[in-house]
Amino acid sequence: MASEAEILDELRRLRARVPQLTGALAAGVDGLVLAQDTPGVEPERVAALTVTALGVAERMADATGQGDFRELLVRGVYGYVATYAAGRGAVLTVLAQDRVNLGRLLLEGRRAGSRIGELVDAEAAAEAETEAEERSEATASEKAPPRTTTARPRTARAPRTTNARTTTES
Asked: In this structure, is the dihedral angle defined by the CA atoms of residues 125, 128, 130 and 136, taken in order, positive or negative?
């Protein structure tokens, strides 16, 4: 996956743009934490819950004909939890205070999710390309060496003669 440092930088920039955020976390769709800036919150637990909520949200969007999952917003008494699609392989979850500007939260969360998705997807594509190259090299080395044939020396042939009979009818 993408470099943890690059993703963490994006999470910190997001928190700087939206000061009411209390935490941000990027996780793979498998539930593993890619990077986190969540003081006072257990990141592994949030990542696991995020992936669970992602599964429900995807099924809800599909069942209602709303298309692919983009974002999920949960409002609690003390604030918000927003989850955004981050490319094909990751999700971004942000925690915000109740007094956050909701429009700003949604806008900046979408932007950060998009950037994180680009990082994760680019890294995944590079890894897939490297694996494909390694497989093709391994396959090429496993193939039997090509058969080499030695050229036989040519000998001169005598010219052909034909014994053609011609008959004439009279």
From this structure: negative
Tokens of 88: 């094909």
Distance CA 122, CA 115 (A): 11
pLDDT tens digits for range 144-166: 555 555 656 666 666 666 665 55
Q: How far apart are CA 76 and CA 143, in angstroms?
A: 61
Asked whether the whole model's pTM tops 0.85, one would answer no
Q: Are 91 and 54 in contact (CB under 8 A)?
A: yes
Report residue 78: phi and psi, to 5°: -100, 0
Helix (H) or strand (E) holding 129: helix 102-142
SS3 47: helix
Distance CA 54, CA 51 (A): 5
Asked if 76 contacts 96 with a C-beta cutoff of 8 angstroms, the reply is no
In 3D space, the residue among 61, 54, 161 whose CA is nearest the CA of residue 113 turns out to be 54
Residue pointed to by tokens 């955004």: 84
| C-alpha–C-alpha distance, residues 94 and 22, integer Å | 8
How far is Cα 42 from Cα 53, in angstroms, rounded to an integer? Answer: 17
Give me the sign of the Cα torsion angle 57, 45, 41, 38.
Answer: negative
Q: Decide: helix, strand or coil at residue 155.
A: coil
